[in-house]
Every structure is written in C-alpha cells, then in structure tokens.
Amino acid sequence: MGQSLSEPVTSKETAFCQNDLYKVGSSCMQGWRMHMEDSHTHILSLPDDPGTSFFAVYDGHGGAKVAEYAGKHLHKYITRRLEYGKDVRHALQQGFLDLDEAMLNNEALREQMSGSTAVAVLIKDNRLYCANAGDSRAIACIDGRLDVLSFDHKPTNETEKERICSAGGYVEYNRVNGYLALSRALGDFGLKRNKHKLPEEQMVTAYPDVEEREITESWDFLVLACDGIWDVLSSQAVLEFVQTEIAQGVYPQQICENLMDRCMAPDCQMGGIGGDNMTVIIVCFLHGQPYEELINRCKEAVAKRDARRKRRLHSNRSHDSNIEDHDTSKSHANGRLDDDSSGSESERSEGERTPSLAMRNKENEEEEDSEATRNGEPSQEKSTSAVQPLTKEPKDKEKPVSLESNNASAEDSSDEIDLK
C-alpha cells in the first residue's frame, strides 16, 4: 500500500451533469493515501463526435502525471483514429496505444516512474463499448441485473502471465517483476523496453480488452470505479448498494460519495483494503424520461430481491430444523446470501468471467419461478410502494460539469502531444 496518512483526507471533489439520456454523478477522495493520483472524465457529447458520450476512470500509481494526461486526452486519440467511424472497437484499442506512445515521446512524461489504469465507456448510436487496461472496473445494471463490462488484468491471470514471461519478465508476490500489481496500464515505461516485442506484447501493455453491448430501454445505470472500491465490495454488492440508493431517491453524485464512505477503512491497519484513493462515476440511463422512472424501476428490483431472499431464508430455516445440531453451521454456510460484501478473488481471475446476462437472467427467473411456486406465489412480483421524494441536489461541494473532467488539469509538461 505504501505510506499512509495518520488521518484520512475525506473531502470529496464531486460533480454532476445531465441531458435527456443520462444523469451522471462523479466523486473522488484521497482517503488514507499520501497523494491523490486518480483522474476521471465524463463527457455527455464529444466535441469531435456530437451525440457520443464518454466516461472514464484512471487510477494512477507512482504519481498522478499519467492519469492526468489520460484524463485530458484519451478520448481525443480515440476519435481521431481513421477507423473510428467504421470500427469503434479497433479505434479504442489503437487510441490507447497512441496515447501511450505520445507520452513515451514526451521527455517529461517518459522519465516519470508512474502509470495508470484506464477503464473507459464510449456510447455511440445505442452501442456501448467498454475498454479496459488494468484493474479499474465498469459494471452495468440491466433490468435490475448485473453485467460486468470489464475484467481485471492481474499478473496471476494465465494469459497475462504468459505474455509477461514471453517478454522477459516474471511474476513474483503476484506482481510483475515483484513490484507492479497489475499487468496492463498506461505509462510504466520501464516495463515496456523489449525492442523485439510489439506494444501489445510487452510485459505491461496499454492494449485494452473491449466489451461491446447494445443499449436498450432495460438499461438502468453504469458504475465505473477504481480498485479502491472493488477491493472492498464485489460487483454484485456495488450494484445492490447503488440500486438501493436510487430506489430511495438519492441523486447519483451523492451516491458516489456514500459509496466511497462505505468503502473507506476506519483505520490504516487493514492491509491496504479501504485505504486507497477512490473515484466513482455513476451514469443513470433516463431514456428521455424523468429520474423518477428509474427510481420506480429500482424500487421494483429491490422489492423482488428482498422477497426472494426472505423466501430463501425461510427455506433454509426449515431445512435447518431437520438436521442434527452439529451440522447447523454447515447448513447455514450453504444458505449464505449471494451479496458478498467484499471484493471476490474469483471476480478477478481470468477463466471465471461473468456468464452472459441472458444466461444469468434465465437462471434467476427459473429460480424465482421455482421459489414462488413452492410458496404459492405468482412468479412475477410488482412493488406497490410509493415513490420516495427526491433528495435535494447538494449545492456546497458539487459543481455542474457539461464536458471535461472535473479534475485539475495537468501541468504544462503534460500538454497534448501529436504523434511523430
């Protein structure tokens, strides 16, 4: 984790923006770390491609320069690619590499012993593209269900380890060459010096994985965050936290703050968990409707979830009453709720990627139908609770943002660079 402060810095830099399609909130907090090294961007309409939206979180390490530069310029390198109009996926992948090359060609940035993760979501013509390099993460809530949009790049992942070793590196203490805890990143040029390897073949590469989805009216919200969040809470736990907050009428920028407070460690003696910088962006899909419509959808999803768990607990209690006392603890473990409150290592392992949303929905629907039948209830549940009043938009710590990141701009040495 590195050095920690004696007391955390809990002041937050919070912002929001909105149009007919999205209601967006963001916030970042230094926490227990000596310095704030994160950056983020939310742009409702790209200057070079009006109507296209771009959201990204950058988690810096070893310094803030790379994250700051990426926050200002990554979307520009993507949209200026010649193939951008025909092949957005390829433009994202090459845009990441172009940005990395530009920083490598800048002496001030090249000499920085720093790097940054990058998870970026671009939405164009009702298509969502999520590009990820590192262990920041993006998830979506679709019809109340979880869809993980990115997968963490860790040195222990089999394919990542193969690339690292092929480029002349090694994995020790679950780190690249014993010190970098992620296997893809912008910057970190000391680990990209194999002249016989392409940029995407280096020990650490900026080349991102890209996931693609079609946006429909069943999309509820996105969460993009650095690993300061995901190390504490699982993807499912974060979804349920945000879903519950929206159901209570809380605005996304306040939910970001509440989520960071939930994840921050009470002291600096927890092995780094909850002690990192934290950055969160929440993108709520409005689909041209008032925010109250999303509140109602989340209320229904929360009501279904609560009813499902009550049935499950009732079933488990009935089962427990029919077994010996010495087996009680084992039965309780088998009946554990699936909203694991801590980040799961299985989420981070390649080869255990989240099943398709359609498959998960089918399995969940079958489970709900089966449980409802056993309890003599209809399979489709509807929440009849009234809409709670919206919380008032905070005015003191937040500022509206329509385009660029709310982070401080990079210094002169990090000005935009044209590729040579």
Automatic annotation (TrEMBL):
The keyword Lyase does not apply. Pfam families: PP2C (PF00481). Residues 306-316 have a biased composition (Basic residues). Gene3D superfamilies: PPM-type phosphatase domain (3.60.40.10). Its EC number is 3.1.3.16. InterPro entries: PP2C, PP2C_BS, PPM-type-like_dom_sf, PPM-type_phosphatase-like_dom. It comes from the Eukaryota. Residues 317-353, 392-401 have a biased composition (Basic and acidic residues). Its cofactor is Mg(2+); Mn(2+). Residues 23-285 form the PPM-type phosphatase domain. The keyword Glycosyltransferase does not apply. Residues 306-420 are annotated as: Disordered. Residues 376-388 have a biased composition (Polar residues). Keywords: Hydrolase, Manganese, Metal-binding, Protein phosphatase. CDD domains: PP2Cc. One of its GO terms (molecular function) is metal ion binding. Belongs to the PP2C family. This is protein-serine/threonine phosphatase. It comes from Anopheles farauti. The lineage of its organism: Eukaryota, Metazoa, Ecdysozoa, Arthropoda, Hexapoda.
